[in-house]
């Protein structure tokens, strides 16, 4: 069973934010038990972990995100995190094209998701695959696609911790599976 978010009208699309693109209706599938429980920190044994990285937090920057649909405009505060990847386990996020520059990854999170760490701190970060189900409608025909474009995103909460606070995680992980030259 899954929850479905249907966006009706321009105001709803505007409020939904950056996920509403190109007039598509975005449907997010969320297991019912995930809504009922508080967000738990990921661990090396969490099934949805696609990649675990050790990185330097290069920059944190507060900014305002906005979307405009016709005459409707919505804004909300965000925090941009820039991570310089050192090494990791499982999937190497630097192998995907288009969302990194060299060894740096860029993430936008809400102020609630911000780990509130200063630049220069070495961190352990948990990434998950982003899968989007998009339904496009033209007349009587609708097309449904399920896209995993290789993009990895931070877990929704507790995804970044200082390396000094991650001893138990690092013991479980063992030696890194890949390194950045």
Commentary on this structure:
The protein is mainly β and 181 residues long. The protein has one domain (36-130, 148-179): OB fold (Dihydrolipoamide Acetyltransferase, E2P), CATH 2.40.50.120. Helix content is 10%, strand content 45%. The chain is built from three helices and eleven strands. The protein has helices at 10-16, 32-36, 167-173, and strands at residues 25-27, 49-69, 72-90, 100-101, 104-109, 122-129, 132-138, 141-147, 152-154, 160-162, 178-179. Strands 2, 3, 4, 5, 6, 9, 10 and 11 form an eight-stranded antiparallel β-sheet that branches. The chain has a three-stranded antiparallel β-sheet with strand order 1-7-8, with no helix packed on it. Strand 4 (100-101) and strand 5 (104-109) form a beta hairpin. The protein starts with 9 loop residues before the first helix and ends with a strand. 15% of the residues are buried. Mean pLDDT is 79; it is low at 1-9 and 18-26.
CATH topology: OB fold (Dihydrolipoamide Acetyltransferase, E2P)
Q: Given the C-alpha coordinates, what overall shape results?
A: globular
How many helices? 3
* Total count of domains: 1
Radius of gyration: 18 Å
Reading the helices and strands in chain order gives HEHEEEEEEEEEHE
- Please tell me the CATH architecture by its name: Beta Barrel
